[in-house]
Amino acid sequence: MFQGTKNTERNFLVILGGGESGVGTAILGKKEGFRVFVSDRGKIAEKFRIQLEEHGIAWEDGQHSEEKIMQADLVMKSPGIPDDAPLVSRLRGKGIPVISEIEFAYSFTNAVLVGITGSNGKTTTTMLTHHLLKDGGLNVGMAGNVGQSFAKQVAQTNADHFVLELSSFQLDGIEEFRPHIAVLTNITPDHLDRYRHDFNQYIASKFRIVKNQTEKDYFIYDADDPVIMKWLQENPIQSQKLPFSLREELEQGAFIKDKQLIIRTDNSELTMPTSNLTLEGKHNAKNAMAAATVAQLLRIRKETIRQSMESFQGVEHRLEKVLKINNVQYINDSKATNVNATYYALESMDTETVWIVGGVDKGNEYAELLPLVNEKVKAIVCLGVNNQPIIEAFGNCVDLIFETQSMEDAVKQAYKLAERGDAVLLSPACASFDLFQNYEDRGRQFKEAVRKL
Questions:
Q1: Right CATH number for 12-99 from 3.40.50.720, 1.10.3720.10, 3.20.20.370, 3.40.50.700?
Q2: Which residues contribute to the annotated binding site for ATP?
Q3: Number of neighbours of residue 12 by Cβ within 10 angstroms
Q4: CATH topology (fold) of 320-451
Q5: Could you give the CA distance from residue 399 to residue 402 in angstroms, rounded to a whole number?
Q6: At 276, phi and psi to the nearest 5?
Q7: Which residues bind ATP (predicted)?
Q8: Mind listing the pLDDT tens digit of every residue in the chain (453 residues)?
Q9: Fold of 104-311
Q10: What is the pTM of this model?
Q11: Binding site, residues?
């Protein structure tokens, strides 16, 4: 981390990116005595401009004033800016530290931190963990990829605990950040365009979450994930390991036996019937194991954990049941932006399914979906600018494949294809940027189109 953070009278903090994390960092930086300047090459949204003005923070948008930026003592860059962006490279070449919001905010809080990362499941696990800890009476904030920025919450709240959803991009910008409890849900190929199409670089990025942990800290991870297990065999870590598994009974960690979810930590054991879990699917059983293990470690009462598990409503755009029309269930899984996330969605389907799929293909390998598609999918509705990879992947195992260019058309087509007892599943396996602003916009348009049927 940047040395001398606490001695801020002469420190000039430059923030690249005027979104949620950038403005949150600016507010915290100003509070801690930094001279702050926010620079965004795009347009800063009005709600963020208002916040910057209210706090008296200098900013610019539509450009980067490089001469001024190069005078920085410390730079925080938005996770959306690649590490190899020319301006970032020039800053580092001059010896100016470039860090993430997570790293910056970490310097100014003494809260107990739970960091959660993974290719899939991290949002659900984060929200469920926060739900359990809040129900358990802890003064807990939730930040990172969900909710308000971590830095802004450190500036404006006095939370004793934070649950942080962390992307690989955020972890790339840490130096000293150390969560007391780290969770890794799984690792599958994703965002490889940011990692020179090298899966090993992406794996190493995810494991940065444990790099500063000591033997006093905990690492919760999926013992069924071969990528995680291989890395751990080759790279010893300091923290206490608490795996979770659907396949084997564990001396320490979480597993399922005789339809009971069992969690063993520090000579304590929690059991609850799997039938009490409101979230469906094997992947959600794993998310529940991870979250409940955190709650156990933080001494939440066992009965509170059981009750909280039963009351959790799930995450918008993740296997979200929208409506049942003519006895056909419509399900919004717009957050499934990669093949692995869609695998989990299809795996959880127990009826004939009309599958809406497509978007910006990030070099997807669809082969692993073929057995599930063969077994469960009666028709495919493609929703994207380029649907050819999907048609080529599944044309031999699904007779009915239709192309659409709008959500309204996709939902109408699915409505025609679905029969009583079927499900219509939006689980795109792709990014959304060809036809939508983001996956939230895609999911909301799906729900709106369903309600119009």
A1: 3.40.50.720
A2: 118-124
A3: 18
A4: Protein-Tyrosine Phosphatase; Chain A (3.90.190)
A5: 10
A6: -80, -10
A7: 118-124
A8: 333 344 444 599 999 999 999 999 999 999 999 999 999 999 999 999 999 999 999 999 999 999 999 999 999 999 888 888 999 999 999 999 999 999 999 999 999 999 999 988 888 899 999 999 999 999 999 998 887 899 999 999 999 999 999 988 889 889 999 999 999 999 987 656 666 677 888 899 899 999 999 999 999 999 999 999 999 999 999 999 999 999 999 999 999 999 899 999 988 899 998 887 877 778 888 999 999 999 999 999 999 999 998 888 777 888 888 999 999 999 999 989 889 889 989 988 989 999 999 988 777 889 889 999 999 999 999 998 888 999 999 999 999 999 999 999 999 999 999 999 999 999 999 988 888 989 999 999 999 999 999
A9: UDP-N-acetylmuramoyl-L-alanine:D-glutamate ligase (3.40.1190)
A10: 0.77
A11: 118-124
> Where do the structural domains in the chain lie, given as residue ranges?
12-99, 104-311, 320-451
Q: What is the DSSP letter of 200?
A: H
CA distance 405 to 233: 46
Amino acid found at 449: A
What's the token pair of residue 298? Answer: 């933080």
